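WARN no homologs supplied; continuing
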Amino acid sequence: MRSGIIAQKVGMTRLYTDEGGHVPVTVLKVDDCEVLAVRTKEKDGYVAVQLGAGKAKEKRVAQPQRVQYAKANVTPKKTVMEFRVSDDCVIPVGSQLSVNHFIKGQFVDVTGISLGKGFAGVMKRYNFSGDNATHGVSGTHRSAGSTGQRQDPGRVFKNQKMPGHMGAEQVTVQNLQVVALDEENGLIMVKGAVPGFDGTTIIVKDAVKKALPKEAPIPAGLKTKEQPAAEVKAEAAEQAPAEEQPVAETQAETTEQAQAEEAVASTDKE
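OK structure emitted
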């Protein structure tokens, strides 16, 4: 079982196929998703990896978390989550996950917080049919109807479907297909709609009801960290061959050396 990945919902668009058809996709952005800690069975009783994504202001991060980020050699994160993994899918601390964690055509499960709908009636919330439009009905066309019985039991049972707050809850959409990946910009494009508004945090995992493709990277698709520009220039200077001297300077040095040897030879003869 591999780790999931933390992404951000950007919005929806469409991609065109070679045949001319179009596929509606949701664009998810992966922003600095790094491993902060590893949970082991010996120490914690279970195996998991702790991931962080996004950027948080350092002044808004508590001191204990600052120490944790410093040990992992990562910047403070806006979102932190844990993912249960198998023993062979543990990721080293400090590693950065890439969109190549998934492959094109793979099925994934996407989890997010749904849009809040506010206070809703039973017709919108539970798809009730409502009361009759005519035949003596007046003013109660969208009502729930009877919610209880008679004197026995004399109460309304628990979990009765009634008007109330709708939405703003965790929703998982299963078996969404990965249509395209953009490693340069850190984008994952999945077919269909994803719960939540634009900018919300989204969790992307391997589909539970579909087999993991053999091409999927184990333990994860990691991103190689870029070296600072100064270090790259220094390495290039060390590996570069020594510069050749101009031809004129080389000929002059050869002439001076020959003249010096002739002077020494004449002195020896005298």
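The longest strand covers residues 170-182.
OK
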